[in-house]
Amino acid sequence: MNYDSLGATVKISDEEAKKIDGILNSLSATSSRKEKEVILKSNVSYTPLWYVFREALNPYYNYFNAGERIISEDQSDKIKGFLINDILKRIHSNEINLNTDDGIKLFSSMYWGLSNESRKILKSIVDKDMRVGVGAKTLNKVKSAIIPIIPYMRCSLPNQVPFESVDWSSALIQEKCDGAFTNINNYADKAELELYTRTGMKYDPSLLFDDETRAILSIALLSDHQSHGEMLIVDKKTGEVLPREKGNGILNSVLSGSKVPDEYRVKMVIWDSVPLDYALSGTEYKVVYKDRFAKLLSQYKAALVHFAQHRSESEPLLVEHLEIVKTELVKSFDDAQNFYRKMLNQGKEGAIIKLFSGTWKDGTSKAQIKMKLSVDCDLKIVGYEEGKGKFENNVGSIVCATSDDTLQVSVSGFDDATRSFINEHRNEFLNSIVTVRFNSIMEPEEEGGKYSLFLPRFVEFRKDKTEADDLQRVRDQFENAIRSV
After folding, report:
1. Rounded to whole angstroms, how far apart are CA atoms 293 and 312?
2. Residue 170 CB neighbours (<10 A)
3. pLDDT by residue (tens digit) across 95-111?
């Protein structure tokens, strides 16, 4: 079956919605993965069920948190006569634009015109969470390729690939950029680049770059390849890259339809490029990294030479908007440590060691190892954020602060048992001390605001402590960690 045509063939009547809801309830009622697979296999030919899963979990579909923005029933005009598939078809064609107030108003009216079961299913779809404890991997195991997967090659951590096992005669090291990971598809037969996030959310290139810059980028990037890199936001006046939280905030606004503000420009930093046939299917590309990187670099340098020879104004535009990641050859762990320390001292996130021999694949690569600073601090619990999706009616995260209340951050990362224990003893845990692990300190977003932490995660309760660290101590611990690298 052509799964992309499901929306044209499936019609989810009220009776179909009741049947689907019953299957979903059966899936939700068991925690056994094997039992879930049995239920799915027994319904493998029931197309409406798989249509619902595909609509909910397709990474390329963005519903703009519509489930949380539904207008209440008493304030909506019920529009009856539409099915779930009718509404979704109109969303995908942008007839219902969920990124606008009018779109939400129309969606809400159609939503309240559905049956109870249809409303439940539609809300789960736009929440992108069917709340049944199965994901794309399990669904694709039962029914091959029903849910699109966006391939992504992750780095290993030092505990997965010890540094002493690295062949330093065939390795290099690169800056770990601190922006938004981006896939960049450069089709030979298309005039426009295609850019999207790790989760499949697509950017409108015209909101990122002007016409001339997009044309220049398509020349500098390998044709019919997917390049991998990060997008950064640069202040035009100072030339400085904005902090991750501010830069990514601007890029998130672009995903919602806003243009990059005039005082900033987008710069892409790339480090790999894979033929589209391999990148889009997730098939391993066995050309080694040394050769992939050399080809990527050669294409970029050729574009620079081309524009320079023609005395074109395009050369500075290319340099402003695209660069190859900072890279050095290393011959020892000491060389890698020196580069890593230099990156941290410059306020960068870290470094990646890459082996010449690494192939490209979907999954975790043992040929690239992340060097990234992690620091612990002790904070007090000052509140809770409610859970969503599978954690509904439970604690979503704990809100933690320094003793001087100048830093505050929401922390998760605990297992289900710990989460439930915290939820059952909320009052007892208020003002208690927990150890939180983080990667950097984030400046306040506005004057007078609170500091925060980047990638905070729960480590342990500190029953032996009654005093949290203040902001200065958190800073001191972070600086000491950098100096001790």
Report:
1. 26
2. 15
3. 999 989 999 999 999 99
